[in-house]
Amino acid sequence: MSARHATVWPVWLVMLTCAALMSLPLPDALTPFRPPWVTMAVIYWAMMWPKRFGLGSAFLVGLALDVLQGDTLGQHGLSLTIIAYLTHRFHLQIRIFPLWQLTATVFALLALEGFILFWIDGVAGNPAVGVARWTQVLIGGFLWPPVMAIMDRIRERLEHRSTALA
Amino acid sequence: MALGTTDSKQRGYRETTPGLRAVAICALAIGLMVADSRSELLVDLRRLLAASAYPVQVLIDSPVAFGRWVRENMVTRRQLLEENRMLRQRVLARDGRLQTMASLEQENARLRALLDSTAKVSDRVLIAEIMAVDMNPFRHQIIVNKGSDDDVFVGQALIDADGVVGQVTRDQVFSAEAILITDVEHALPVEVLRNRQRTIAVGTGQLDELSLPFLPRNADIVPGDLLVTSGLGGTFPAGYPVATVSAVTNETGASFLTVTAQPAARLSRVREVLLIWPGEQTAPIVAEPAPSERERINTAATDQPANGAIE
């Protein structure tokens, strides 16, 4: 059990890196094409390690993102919690999907998150002009296979280490 | 491919009441959002969280900061000499202008004392650097590397060498968040320098455009007019350049003019900004006036709150 817990911190490192990637300065022209790194990472880890990456973790990641992005506190907390919940609910099914079906599912989840954020902005009265929210969804969907390959590498390495320790 | 994860070995794994937990966390998130956007309850929590996020932001900023440092250190002696010469010339030119400015300032203070009106004192400023950190892509927000440690306060005005840049929205301990004047949620009271026509300049969400939506169709405004802060509203001190009117359209049937203006500050390229403390005088920029003169200015300044519209 303790070996299991010892391997959780790299996931948080991945999350922090993703959150940092969200605020990495990009030229103005490229800003709409920034992939939603954090959401993709949350989907991946909620799907693969549902026991170690729970709803509470997704909520905390969302709060960190809110602080870094200067958004209303809880906005990403809410959207990522919902995304993590749905991923948890269906993780056994979507895990065995072929890659194209998995990518389509991720598309749907990213679009749902875009819609939740759009809706919160509308209710809170923060006007969000431009198409950036939806181009992000597209880019995120297209980038899912390589991102998943990288995350798989990280996960395999962690699991090897934890089995070696145990 | 994904069947071999450790967690999937417990096939029947389900959280005991995942739905309930999700609902509870969502309710917490909604509560946070309401508290954050509709009240001041979370200001301190937010400041704490932001202070702990500061190292991450420094890390994100570091490649750009390092690049700048390398560029600054890799200049040749020739370039330095050349730049030095140029800067000297500019200082000379500015000093020349400031000489007349000193006498004008004194004259202004004298006249204002005669009118029994507030003298415009010079403001305290502090140079802050904008950190290379991107925020919410839908807002024009920036982070500067000075915070409440340096007495930065919410609502403080930011300017650059050419004009008004924006205002501080959240003062954090080591840094501060600010919105630019072009943010869609930002509006600032301005007046046309030529005829003191007052209006409001509203951000459009584009870095090179402001809009003046509240001018009646018979208002006297033409392209090229300089807009300066009017000092009304109390956030921005009066007299700083904001924008130049770029287009005026008078549409038949509309109740207001459609006026667009180009910000004076180079918002897309600005790296260093000045934080202003209105009315707090530090070392005067120009030569000291004679003691008796200064006394008169000071009494005039303390008669009324120093920062305000002068009519």
In summary, what is this structure?
Helix content of chain A is 76%, strand content 0%. With 166 residues, chain A is mostly helical.
In terms of quaternary structure, the protein is heterodimer
CATH T-level fold name of chain A: Arp2/3 complex 21 kDa subunit ARPC3
Under the CATH scheme, the architecture of chain A is Orthogonal Bundle
Given the helix and strand composition of chain A, which structural class is it? mainly alpha
Most strands sheet of chain A = none
What is the number of independent domains of chain A? 1
Strand content of chain A: under 5%
Kindly name the structural category of chain B.
alpha+beta
Number of strands of chain B: 12
List keywords for this structure.
heterodimer; A: 166 residues; mainly alpha; Arp2/3 complex 21 kDa subunit ARPC3; 8 helices; disordered N terminus; B: 311 residues; alpha+beta; Thrombin, subunit H; six-stranded antiparallel beta sheet; six-stranded antiparallel β-barrel; 12 strands; 21% strand
Please tell me about this protein's structure:
The complex is a heterodimer of chains A (166) and B (311). Chain A is an all-alpha fold and 166 residues long. Chain A has one domain: Arp2/3 complex 21 kDa subunit ARPC3 (Orthogonal Bundle). Chain A is 76% helix and 0% strand. Chain A has eight helices and no strands. In chain A, helix 2 packs antiparallel against helix 3, helix 3 packs parallel to helix 5 and helix 5 packs antiparallel against helix 7. Chain A is globular. With 311 residues, chain B is α+β, with helices and mostly antiparallel strands. Chain B has two domains: 56 residues, no CATH class; 163 residues, Thrombin, subunit H, CATH 2.40.10. Helices cover 33% and strands 21% of the residues of chain B. Chain B contains four helices and twelve strands, in the order H-H-H-E-E-E-E-E-E-E-E-E-E-E-E-H. In chain B, the strands form two sheets. Chain B has a six-stranded antiparallel beta sheet, with no helix packed on it. A six-stranded antiparallel β-barrel of chain B has the order 6-7-8-11-10-9. In chain B, a hairpin with a 6-residue loop joins strand 7 and strand 8. In chain B, helix 3 crosses helix 4. Chain B is globular, with a radius of gyration of 25 Å. The C terminus of chain B is likely disordered. Chains A and B meet through helix 2, helix 4, helix 5, helix 7 and helix 8 of A and helix 1 and helix 2 of B.
